[in-house]
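User: Last request for today: this protein with iron/sulfur cluster, please.
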Amino acid sequence: MKTPFKPRELAKFQRTLLAWYRRNRHALPWRASRDAYRIWVAEIMLQQTRIAAVLPYYERFLENFPDVHSLARVPQSEVLRLWSGLGYYSRARNLHAAAREIVSRHGGDFPGTISHALSLPGIGRYTAAAILSMAYDVPLAALDGNVARVLARLFAIRGHLRGPGHWRALTCLAEQHLARSAPGDWNQALMELGETVCTPRNPRCAECPVAGHCRARARNLTGTIPAPRRKPRAVRVRIAAAILRDPRGRTLLVRDPGAHDRVLFSRMWQFPAIEVSRQPRVELENHIRATLALDGSSLSLEALPAARHGVTFRNVTLLPFLVELPRLPKPRRSRALPLEALHRLPVSSATRKLAAAAAMRDAIVH
Ligand code: SF4
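Assistant: Here's the final one, the structure of the complex with iron/sulfur cluster:
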């Protein structure tokens, strides 16, 4: 365990960083109030997603669901529809389930204790600490990747952040250095320092308000702490999808329980699709013939431009095929609607990319 700061140094360190944060903090909508609901929604959206990507979704979400009651009242599909494009859809499902629990078990207020917060779907230690400290001033340290990197550098902890015992050691340091008088601001100050100054590569130490306390800087180790984490090699996947279309311009979306469904289409409405190897056209044709009862029909599959899609450690190539049919089939759990009305349903960004390929083809042809 690294030695924490002595009391006098700790007080100076906290004063300096809090003052820097209060002068420089970015005006973000969830910082405008201490409403636990607004902070909670923001924290969930910000998991694995950058602030710039979250902002438009956040505004729209709160316009539609200004409080936990309005969120709890709607069906899950409506929440997923507004989340469409933001990715990691289990977050939206958990948010909705937690809203219902907050209404039914906590009278509509986000719970104020760590044990109750942790019992809600989708809330882990970091998220609970962030919400409780920011909304209710509960003295809990919130350790995310940014904060962990700042602490690792301040205390010159070598190795990668998630190395054996490291995360636990960093958690202890975060607790020991927490400014208990203002835990919400404190947690956000460390996060903001990590995001804007103590960045993963080329930290801007000359602008850092706490450079005088930093052991990595004193020992010239800022370039090597934290050590990079070895990433697993990306798996390549090819998915062929059929954009069926009838003479009225309607297309077919299904809920396909295929193996790729969970990752790529997030169990939402999607085009009929299958993972393919060497002969995408043939494999897709066989798939739709078998699953959509198209046995007798003559099918023409027109290849549209492929699209790339990255999902954690997967490099996915999407291969859309347009299939014009006199009549759309009606499999179980399917929807027929015009392509341009796709936004009415919850769909993943992979489905949007496939639809965009068909729209682009139409724009060129007509
Ligand atoms: S001095 Fe540099 S490495 Fe140390 S905390 Fe500040 S920005 Fe990070």
